[in-house]
Amino acid sequence: MLGELPKTRRTDSAAYQLFLEGQYLKRQISADSLNRAVEAFKQAVEIDPAYVPAWAELADTYLWGGGLDELSHEQTSALADQAIQTAISTDPDYAFAYYVRGVSWIFGKNRFDKGIEDFELALKLDPDDAFIVAAIGKGAFLTGKFNLAISQYQAALAMEPVVPEFYYYLGRAYLSSGHLDDAEASFRKLSNLSASYRGDFHLWETLFMKGELEAALAESDISFTRAITHHALGNAAKADEALADLIENAYPYSIAMVYGYRGEADKTFEWLNNVLENREYYYPTFILTETAFHSVHSDPRWELFLEKLGLLEYWLEMTPDWEQ
Fold it and tell me: How much is the pLDDT for 175?
């Protein structure tokens, strides 16, 4: 009388306990919790090799960085793809597996088109899963459709209100679209939910964009933020000392962001090109969303660089809204 019965996925009780444990650990997004989540999901599929949700969660955990204490990024990416394939071949109708495959396409292979296709397929299969509702927002955020991203993450939070990842992306969408007060509120909520989720860094970023420089420095006092904030405060010696440390120890993308915030266009593009030349693992997946690069958006080299990344079409679609 009430319609179709809800679908359930039976498994061994011990496997289910490990699955729940792994989910809890994965959502904390710290190096230790992700490694422990990998072990929990691996134990679950050892008990029940046909338990598709555990395979999909294992893949997602690898993509978040689980297992990197012992394996390289290339190895964990390959293991993620294997787990995704196992999940989909075992149950072609399991929506979350397609969501994870979409994450792999975007974050592992820089194929935004393929990733968004998988997010949309996952939503058709399970429109009531908060993570899949949020996935549409993730694809929208990364390609510059910030209003859609905000509405999707708001909808996801109405379904599951205590997921740190949702506040992370919601805050970033607010920040990227210039809604700085809303961004600040989201990142403060994020920091309360999970101290390991970089909420303090993005709170620094928001306060910096608001011009509250001393407050920003109080939130995050690492080499990256010192190189930017002290430069804005006019403390050249402290800023350059922090930048020298970054050049010695950080990824090229981080250094490009510093120069972007400092308004030094030539250095910004020099280090962005280093990202491509060095093929560092952290590919500039978030580049369309970074407030750091506002200073070079009008530079003709910006569109040329986006073309190399295969992101120019998304930029051209988002530019009118961005300029408003």
Answer: 97
Q: How far, CA to CA in Å, does 230 sit from each of 108, 168, 208, 223?
A: 34, 26, 11, 10
CB-based burial, 175-211: b 16+ in 10 Å, e otherwise:
bbbebbebbbbbbbbbbebbeebbbbbbbbbbbbbee
Domain ranges for the chain, please list them: 14-127, 130-211
Q: Which of 260, 184, 190, 196 is nearest to 224 (CA)?
A: 260
Cβ atoms 53, 96 nearer than 8 A: yes
Confidence bin at 130 (pLDDT 50/70/90) = very high
Domain 130-211, CATH 1.10.1660.10 — does that match?
no
Both structure tokens of 66: 């689980």
What's the token pair of residue 249?
């120890």
State how far the Cα of 223 lies from the Cα of 231, in Å rounded to an integer.
12
| Spatial contact of 48 and 38, defined as CB atoms under 8 Å apart | no
Task: Give the DSSP per-residue string, 190-219.
Answer: HHHH-TTSSHHHHHHHHHHHTT-HHHHHHH
pLDDT at res. 9: 63
Whole-number pLDDT of residue 276: 85
Residue with tokens 């509405």: 151
Contact (Cβ atoms closer than 8 angstroms) between residue 150 and residue 136: no
**Is residue 307 predicted with pLDDT exceeding 70?**
yes
Q: Which residue has the tokens 């804005």?
A: 232
Q: Answer whether 14-127 and 130-211 agree in fold.
A: yes
Two structure tokens written together for 56: 């999909």
Going from the C-alpha of 296 to that of each of 147, 150, 158, 172, 205, the distances in angstroms are: 23, 25, 37, 19, 18
pLDDT at 6 > cutoff 60: no
Fold classification of 14-127 (topology level): 1.25.40
